[in-house]
From TrEMBL:
Name of the featured protein: LuxR C-terminal-related transcriptional regulator
Gene3D superfamilies (alphabetical): Tetratricopeptide repeat domain, Winged helix-like DNA-binding domain superfamily/Winged helix DNA-binding domain
Organism: Streptomyces kaempferi
Pfam families linked: AAA_16, GerE
Keywords carried by this UniProt record: ATP-binding, Nucleotide-binding
HTH luxR-type domain location: 849-914
UniProt xrefs under InterPro entries: AAA_16, P-loop_NTPase, Sig_transdc_resp-reg_C-effctor, TPR-like_helical_dom_sf, Tscrpt_reg_LuxR_C, WH-like_DNA-bd_sf
SUPFAM superfamilies, sorted: C-terminal effector domain of the bipartite response regulators (SSF46894), P-loop containing nucleoside triphosphate hydrolases (SSF52540), TPR-like (SSF48452)
């Protein structure tokens, strides 16, 4: 009996309603995405057909993942976008170059995968602006990794784009993980009543009710299994006269059912089916070239069409994706090799090496070398997963153990670049028994260390890298330094949590090994060496080197983010109290990462920049940085922070419940993963909050935690707070200890921020009228640099000192300035402290009124600020990794909420809320 090409849809009401909502969203001008997952044959493909039937007023685009294509980086994406490549010239240059490189259309260098994602989003959105579009993507488990990640990225960035994405994939596949953050529905088998109805619709003769119940129960309501049984069982079996087969075809048995059906076909038809299963679905020319070399013609397909295995349209195709998989997995090794040899003889050069490998028995160094050459072509396009798979195959075909291990390691490195960390460790384990020589062992150690750092697990990394340095035995100074640089960064991030060594030991090894050499201005090496010197030999040795390294980086035309360099820049800036260098360098890193589409590095740089904004009282800009960073972390599929990164903002704004929850999370992460820096960040935020609330003993306890974890990262910029907390808590010993370190270090730093805080601490420690001049000196220094919160803090302390001396008029001047600053920013604890002090002078503080701009969402505020800075909608879209239609939608809401009619009016409206609402720096 012939199969219906589209079986009836019975049941699936919730799923159909979800698809309906997606389609309505597209019709209303918005984007939407939904992932359907479930067992083989459960009805995912039928629901995609239902979506297509329901979207006849939309442009429908289809893509089916093919098992034979999983190694072809960006191959599936190219098939999806090929009809729209005529629009490439309209894309912004960087996006156009990114897609051209990914598809091998030019010789341009590969771009970050997220820039490719933005280009794909823009291309699809532009097409959808002409005709609202629905993209149906079936069998996503067979998409190549780059295409899958790009499409998942597009799904996460949709907003006002008239574009819907509907994905379907099989359960139990790790390839579905990249779609994990998207809205999803899991399909189960049909309910009993619906399953019986579907079975009855497929049976032409009599169906015994007991048989129907047995079939429904045995298949778990799997629709494809039921339909196949309705066709394949005899009329007597269906009528209950003869016994049913055991086991019934469902899940794995369903594939076996398809294998058996294909096995009944003529030999040339079976060969053609296998060839179709191994050939990209859109490459009909390659299919028929290979078919011709095997003596096959279109007539060979007819028996499969008659058997319902293939369906005829403009071309012949498998009736169901599961049949393709069944045919491919059922073939013998000899049959596969024969087909692969035919493909190798007729394929393009970039695919020929793989086909030759699949057609070859055992090791073959010639084929392995061809595969290695093919992997370089994949790398040139940014197809790092393809590069890794091809190199892995090359390793498998390599006879020499040492060369095989080398290729496994290179494959692991490619997986590392693609973000497939699970495969990295697997390949390192395969390589390890055959590693020969220190260079190979060092390569493996660096790969292991990189995985640990990407997973934020620095605990074992420094010791691991020091061991690798010892293995080199000074035979390669440059390689040794690279290892030591990475060890220093891991030691700084891990702090006291690292095992097997100490930050001091790591730093000393690096400082002693460092040799000045000709390096590009953007190189991170001098800065890391300076941090190492500061830890190993003290601040007097390290401060000048840090200042020189920061100056060198500021002179660079452009910086390049690598190994979380923004974190090291932030720490170095804090060590010297150099807020200006810190801001300038972080803004350069933000611009560089944004331009390259390096969203992970950009998210880290934005987190560091947010703290710069906070110190300048620009809380709204900081919130924008935090939100944008979290948006990118989510878009890249890494994680969402749960807002714990906002802990410093929570401290200054007095959001105690969120502060303490974030601190608990960060300390738990520190203990679990060995990230001592998160423990220090939590301590810093808690100490600021407690000082603002006047709970000085609690503040001092938090300060001691940070100081104990010194010598680097966040210790010094908290010294002024420790002096104040120690004095107010009655612990002059603690205050004196902090004061000594301040006296030692601030003059060596010599920056206005350092000298301003030093003068403040001297004023606090002073017992006589010298304090007045010291407070004025503190204010004078702090006015020179963008550290508005510390300036207001010094004014608050000066005002308190003046009030205690009954100089109420003078106190009001300082306290009023402090209160108005803290209140305008929303720094609630310090604003309240200033208000109480101001009230004690006889003046009533005026609270700020509510602002209508609070109705704007964070994204709307960000878009509005960027528009006010003069950027076009296209420029804003590129910066925020969204589409111009999304920017236009946000701006239309901004205009309505602010009651304006022109973007020229935005600046005036935003300016009414103070400096915190300017366009975020570095944008």
């Amino acid at each position: 009996m012939r199969h219906e090409s589209v079986p009836p849809l019975i049941g699936r009401v919730p799923e159909c309603e979800a698809i309906g909502r997606l389609l309505e969203s597209v019709r209303d001008g918005f984007g939407g995405v939904l992932v359907l997952n479930g067992d083989a044959g459960v009805g995912k493909s039928r629901l995609l057909e239902y979506a297509a039937e329901s979207a006849q007023d939309l442009a429908v685009v289809r893509l089916v993942g093919v098992e034979a294509e999983t190694r072809l980086g960006y191959g599936a994406l190219h098939r999806l976008l090929r009809p729209h490549l005529g629009r490439l010239s309209a894309l912004p240059r960087r996006q156009r170059d990114a897609l051209n490189a990914a598809f091998g259309l030019t010789d341009a260098s590969p771009s970050d995968c997220h820039l490719v994602g933005l280009a794909a989003l823009t291309l699809l959105s532009d097409a959808a602006a002409v005709a609202p579009m629905l993209c149906l993507v079936d069998d996503v488990q067979w998409l190549d990794r780059e295409s899958a990640e790009t499409l998942a990225f597009v799904g996460r960035r949709l907003y006002a784009d008239c574009l819907g994405l509907l994905f379907a994939g099989r359960d139990g596949s790790s390839d579905l993980d990249v779609f994990g953050a998207l809205p999803a529905l899991r399909l189960e088998g049909l309910a009993d009543v619906e399953a019986r109805a579907l079975l009855s619709a497929g049976v032409t003769g009599h169906l015994d009710q007991a048989v129907a119940e047995r079939l429904v129960t045995g298949t778990g309501g799997n629709p494809l299994a039921l339909l196949e049984l309705a066709v394949s069982l005899g009329s007597e079996q269906l009528a209950g006269v003869t016994a049913l087969p055991e086991p019934l075809p469902v899940n794995r048995q369903l594939e076996e059912h398809f294998r058996q059906a294909a096995a009944l076909l003529p030999a040339d038809t079976q060969t053609l089916l296998l060839l179709m299963a191994a050939t990209p679905t859109d490459d009909q020319a390659a299919l028929w070239r290979a078919a011709g070399s095997l003596g096959l013609s279109a007539r060979s397909a007819m028996p499969a069409v008659e058997a319902g295995i293939l369906i005829r349209g403009t071309t012949v195709a498998f009736r169901h994706p599961l049949i393709r998989s069944a045919v491919h997995s059922a073939a013998s090794t000899k049959e596969r090799q024969r087909v692969q040899a035919a493909l190798a003889a007729t394929s393009a050069p970039e695919r020929r090496a793989w086909h030759r490998a699949e057609a070859t028995d055992g090791p073959d160094d010639v084929v392995a070398a061809e595969l290695e050459a093919a992997s370089e072509l994949a790398q040139a396009r940014g197809g790092y997963s393809e590069q890794a798979l091809v190199l892995t195959r090359a390793a498998e075909m390599t006879a020499h153990p040492g060369k095989r291990a080398e290729r496994y390691l290179h494959a692991a490195a490619a997986h590392l670049t693609s973000g497939n960390l699970a495969e990295v460790q697997t390949l390192i384990d395969l390589a390890t028994p055959d590693l020969t020589g220190p260079q190979a062992r060092v390569h493996a150690a660096r790969l292991r260390a990189s995985v640990e750092m990407i997973c934020s697990r620095p605990r074992k990394v420094p010791a691991m890298l020091l061991e690798a340095v010892a293995d080199l035995r000074t035979t390669d100074p440059m390689a040794s330094w690279d290892l030591l640089r990475e060890a220093v960064q891991a030691a700084i991030i891990g702090g006291r949590m690292i095992t097997g060594t100490t930050p001091h030991e790591v730093a000393k090894a690096a400082a002693d090994a460092w040799r000045e050499s000709e390096l590009p201005a953007w190189s991170p090496d001098p800065l890391i060496a300076a941090l190492a010197r500061s830890i190993a030999y003290g601040y007097a040795e390290g401060a000048p080197a840090l200042a020189a390294a920061l100056a060198r980086l500021r002179a660079a035309d452009e910086l390049q983010e690598q190994d979380a360099f923004s974190v090291m820049v932030s720490i170095a800036g804090d060590e010297l109290w150099d807020i200006e260098a810190k801001r300038e360098l972080l803004e350069k890193l933000v611009a560089a990462d944004r331009g390259r589409g390096a969203l992970y590095g950009l998210s880290l740089a934005l987190l560091a920049l947010a703290k710069v904004e906070i110190w300048d009282g620009r809380f709204a800009a900081a919130e924008s940085c935090y939100n944008e960073s979290d948006d990118y972390l989510s878009a890249t599929g890494y994680f969402r922070s749960g807002d714990f990164h906002k802990i410093l903002l929570y401290a200054w704004t007095g959001r105690e419940a969120e502060l303490r929850a974030a601190a608990a999370t960060m300390r738990a992460l520190s203990e679990d993963q060995g990230t001592g820096v998160t423990y220090r960040w939590a301590g810093q935020a808690l100490s600021i909050f407690e000082v603002g609330r006047g709970r000085y003993q609690a503040a001092l306890d938090a300060q001691r935690d940070i100081l104990d974890d010194h010598p680097v990262a966040l210790g010094d910029i908290n010294l002024a707070g420790m002096v104040e907390a120690g004095l107010r808590a009655g612990d002059r010993k603690a205050a004196t200890m902090a004061m000594r370190r301040m006296e030692e270090r601030a003059p060596l730093a010599g920056t206005p921020w350092a000298l301003g805080l030093l003068a403040r601490c001297r004023a606090l420690m002073s017992d006589d009228d010298e304090a007045e001049q010291l407070y004025k000196e503190s204010i004078s220094h702090l006015e020179k640099v963008p550290v508005a919160v510390d300036l207001a803090w010094s004014r608050l302390l000066f005002g308190e000192w003046l009030r205690r001396r009954k100089r109420r008029a003078d106190a009001r001047v300082q306290l009023r300035a402090a209160y108005e600053s803290f209140e305008s920013w929303g720094a609630a604890p310090f604003a309240e402290r200033a208000r109480v002090e101001l009230q004690a002078t006889g003046e009533t503080a005026r609270r700020r009124s509510a602002d209508t701009q609070l109705d704007l969402t964070p994204q709307e505020r960000h878009v509005a600020a960027l528009a006010a800075s003069g950027l076009t909608n296209a420029e804003i879209a590129s910066r925020l990794f969204v589409t111009t239609s999304t920017v236009e939608f946000h701006l239309s809401r901004v205009f309505r909420k602010l009651g304006i009619t022109s973007r020229k009016q935005i600046e005036n409206k935003l300016g009414n809320a103070g400096s915190g609402d300017r366009a975020p720096a570095g944008q």
